[in-house]
Amino acid sequence: ILPFRALTIEDGLSQGMVSSIIQDRAGFMWFATKDGLNRYDGYSFRVFRHDPEDSTTVRDNFIQVIHEDRAGLLWVGTNSGLDVLDPATEVFHHFPCGDGALGQAAGNSGLRSRKDGTECATNVIAEDLAGNLWVSSGQGLYRIDPDRSGSSPAGPGARVDLVGVCPGVKMQWIVVDRTGLLRGAWTMNGE
């Protein structure tokens, strides 16, 4: 039996409902909550929240998923879009979203617009063996080849491809196996 200690709001966690947990290469624990992105150093929490006056903060406090890529950047899926955090600078870069903006920014067809406002909600992120990110957002599955040459992976060199549009489908998880095969599970109409 492994010993463990539960971390709660009494310890500084911003909110009790945690949707994603990772440990990064520096040893920090990251927690996705409905009230911000929480970083735990073993002693205390640092909470990253949206500040409407500061464009370098996370775009939304409702964090659904976190993924650390091979470059050490944190991909943060929120209820209103996808962000990338450089842990060294603590600056969030936002992928444009809504009404095709994501694709327009990268020169491709973008997110399909939905009237319920969920076209940008990002709930699944995985990375394949080639370094592409696979993101489930709103109505579709996207493959993102980040711009590794600029100051932001969401920059002008990023390539975003809409792989599939599946109205009513919600990805539950995606994983890339040892052979590079992308696998996943989904539900129809939220069931």
Description of the molecule:
With 191 residues, this protein is mainly beta. Helix content is 3%, strand content 42%. It contains 1 helix and 14 strands. The chain has one helix at residues 101-106; strands at residues 18-23, 29-33, 36-40, 45-48, 63-68, 74-78, 81-86, 91-94, 122-127, 133-137, 140-145, 159-165, 169-176, 182-188. The strands form 4 sheets. The chain has a 4-stranded antiparallel sheet with strand order 1-2-3-4, with no helix packed on it. Strand 9 and strand 10 form a beta hairpin. The longest helix is centred in the middle third of the chain and has 6 residues, at 101-106. The chain is globular, with a radius of gyration of 16 Å.
Order of neighbouring strands in the sheet with most strands? 1-2-3-4
Distance between the termini: 35 Å
Helicity level, as a percent range? under 10%
Number of strands: 14
Order of helices and strands: EEEEEEEEHEEEEEE
For the sheet with most strands, the description reads: 4 strands, antiparallel
Q: Can you summarize this structure?
A:
The chain has 191 residues and is mainly β. 3% of the residues lie in helices and 42% in strands. Mean pLDDT is 81; it is low at 99-117.
